[in-house]
Structures are given as C-alpha cells and as structure tokens.
Amino acid sequence: QVQLVESGGGLVQPGGSLRLSCAASRFTLSYYAIGWFRQAPGKVREGVSCISSSEVTTYADSVKGRFTISRDNAKNTLYLQMTSLKPEDTAVYYCAISLRSACPKSRYDYNYWGRGTQVTVSS
Description:
48% strand; 0% helix; single chain; 123 residues
C-alpha cells in the first residue's frame, strides 16, 4: 500500500518561510508526476505546484516566485519551499502522486494522496 506522509507545517508569521516534505513509501517517485495541493476552510482543494518525472515544474499564479517545488529521488521525497508567506496561504497542504509522467491539469488525475499538514500564517 502506497503511503505519503507530509511534514514541516506549522505556525509562521507573514513574510516567513517553511519547507514542507512528503515522504513516500512502497512507491518509487522518480517515474511519476507529484504535486502539492492545499485546502483552506470552506474552500475547494486547489493545486499549488507540480513536478513531472522529467523535472518540469508548474505553479499556481498565486505562489509563483514565492514557492519552489523539488524532489529527491534518492530519498523518495518531495519538497515545497515556501517563502514570503501570506495569511492567504493558510491551509492544509497535501502531496499527491499521479501515475502519469507529466503533470496533470486536473486533481482527479492524481491517484494517491497524503493526509496533509497544516500551515498557518498569522501574526
């Protein structure tokens, strides 16, 4: 059974930084696209960023220039470096794997999901 475990969330002040990690077990990440999503209370889950098997990255407009996605295939781990955090970045952040090599456009094309980690940006 595939397991994805997110970590690194927490409480941070506006303008601060956090690095999220997503560790995969019973699955080799290197062949597939992996993404980060977030869901704020009362809102739909939205895509934040994705990295394909060939390292092509995509970002939501709201995080471009502030967030950086990366993967360490040797550690089977995905990362999301978040800087210049804003209160509107507050959400539960999830990682997800697609069985496609290129980043899908729809969240419904992701096959495995972690349980999420809470990020709260507040002074």
